[in-house]
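Researcher: Here's the sequence for the chain we discussed earlier.
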Amino acid sequence: MTAYSARRFVIWGVLFLAFYLAAPWIVFDMRQPAYAFDEDYFEGVRVAYGPRPRRLIASPSYHSFFYDGTEWPFKVFRNFCESWLSDHQFAKPNRWREKDDMVCK
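Model: Thanks. This is the structure I predict for it:
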């Protein structure tokens, strides 16, 4: 690998990482939560999937308001969504809780 191709590789890697870290603020509307369609509360805490995706990126699945978690922003940015939920005091949806419980066992 020449110095030129190594430099290009590093530049593209840095650009990709910068885009991935900045993308949630482009994809999501941080002011509103994306409520789950099949549950309202878990142990007294409101359930959501994370911040609501912008309408042009992913529209709600149910009644133009609720999400079911299969939308691509929730899959690609799941770690970001989980940290947003904990920062804004929302509970994780049942799908995500079940998956976390299976990993722990």
